[in-house]
Amino acid sequence: MKNVLLIAILYVLPIPNDTLLTYANMVCGIMDDTDNDGIFDLNEDINGNGNLDDDDTDFDGSPNYMDDDDDGDGLLTVDEESDPNNDGDPADALNTDGDALANYLDSDDDGDGVMTAAELGLDTDEDFTPDYLDDDDDGDSVLTADEVGLDTDGDLTPDYLDDDDDGDGISTLAENNGDDTDSDGAPNYIDDDDDGDGITTLVENNGDDTDGDLILNYLDPDDDGDGVNTIFEFNGNQNTDGDALLDYLDEDDDGDGFLTVDESSDANGDGNPNDALDQDIDGVPNYLDDDDDGDGVDTEMDNCPFAPNATQTDDDSDGFGDVCDIKTMESIGLNTSTPSADFHISDSQVYIDNPYKGIILMGLDSLCYRLTIDFGGAVKTEEVPCPE
Predict the structure, then answer these.
(1) Is residue 261 helix, strand or coil?
(2) Which of 61, 315, 321, 359 is packed most tightly, with the most Cβ within 10 A?
(3) CB contact at 8 A, 380 and 373
(4) C-alpha to C-alpha distance for 217 and 278, rounded to whole angstroms
(5) Could you give the C-alpha distances from 206 to 25, 147, 174, 341, in angstroms and in order?
(6) For the chain, percent helix, then strand, then coil, each to nearest 5?
(7) How far apart, in whole angstroms, are the C-alpha atoms of residue 184 and residue 125?
(8) Per residue of the chain (388 residues), what is the pLDDT tens digit?
(9) How far apart are CA 223 and CA 221, in angstroms?
(10) What contacts 323, CB < 8 A, 6 or more positions away?
(11) Do the beta carbons of residue 169 and residue 177 sit within 8 Å?
């Protein structure tokens, strides 16, 4: 009754209407803010049933209109931009994650799956956005919501706070470019062996590019460029020739003087040496065999390394065993009695059944070269002594 009488008195006084309304609201309790959180009590009736006592967002026993931290996240409601224009109505309240709840009512302000209370005081990526408002806490370009619950490298720092999720020495930000070098379904940023060669990226990430192909070893499935993928050469520090280089870094695995790639180590070019040439059929492919032709003489010392010649006979002392020497002959004609060259074949073909024999031609440099055919039909040339 007193309120009604006071309002009646106010109305007869010469007071502007807006000021009068403000006074009237104050008198009737419309503008009450019991908890001083900047939101009028009547606007804290969240469920809209007219009963302020059953609105308790954080279930702490204090209804919102009496609670200065409505969502119980450790931040005062007034500090969560609950009413930027200060009109007592939270319609313009900040809502960082754009969900149905303004920050002052949201226990996870940025919607990243980590409660605001757990993120207070942190700015992991030092981007001046506190973690509780940052949807990428560690700044690695992978949303926190997608990293929660993961610790890829097992370093006890969860991925959402770890700038190198897989612990390979390369930041997640640098690796999160969509690449999956070894096509194993794990993108490089959560793959501790990016190229799938059996050697961890952390070990290979030293700037080395052994074969000089402009692909660093940690992204190169064939580190030494010998045609055999590293995963087939590492095999527990395999070192066939016992030199200072393990096979996966050695371009001549068996140390016989012939590059691995030139010993038909991978006929079909798929990086798997299961189709490598084994000339002497001893179960050891040529690229790993120190005696390719199986004649008892190491390939490196053999005067005819790809044709068995245990005696190493070299009658003309030209450095090539007799079995490799080129035989000279008089003019010969096949299907013609009048050869027009030293060797003339008329309307027929030549078949050479030894892949290490071939046609010898003299080049413009006056040196002689033997032409043979490698796997896949590629022509291969090798300098040889010119026939006498």
Answers:
(1) helix
(2) 321
(3) yes
(4) 28
(5) 72, 27, 16, 60
(6) 25, 5, 70
(7) 30
(8) 444 444 455 455 565 655 544 555 555 556 789 999 999 999 999 999 989 999 999 999 999 999 999 999 999 999 999 999 999 999 999 999 999 999 999 999 999 999 999 999 999 999 999 999 999 999 999 999 999 999 999 999 999 999 999 999 999 999 999 999 999 999 999 999 999 999 999 999 999 999 999 999 999 999 999 999 999 999 878 999 999 999 999 999 999 999 999 988 998 999 999 999 998 899 999 999 999 888 899 989 989 888 888 999 988 888 888 888 766 666 777 787 777 777 777 888 888 888 778 888 888 888 888 888 877 788 888 888 887 7
(9) 6
(10) 304, 307, 308, 309, 313
(11) no
Per the listing, tokens 């001046």 go with 128
* Residue 109, both tokens: 């302000």
Instruction: Name the nearest CA neighbour of 274 among 229, 340, 316.
Output: 229
Copy the structure tokens of residue 227. 């045609």
Report d(CA 29, CA 41) in Å as an integer.
9
Beta bridge partners of 322: none
Answer whether 228's CB lies under 8 Å from 260's CB: yes
d(CA 209, CA 186): 23
Nearest-Å Rg of the Cα atoms of the chain is 42
Q: Which amino acid is at 29?
A: G
Q: Which residues pair with 264 in a beta bridge?
A: none
**Residue 283 CB-half CA count within 13 A:** 0
Quote the tokens at residue 163: 């700038």
Residue with tokens 């009963």: 51
What's the CA gap between 337 and 329, in Å, rounded? 16
Show the tokens assigned to 100. 């149905």
The DSSP string of 64-92 is GGG-SSTT-SSS-GGGGTS-TT-SS-GGG
**pTM of the predicted model as reported, rounded to 2 decimal places:** 0.63
Residue type, 67: D
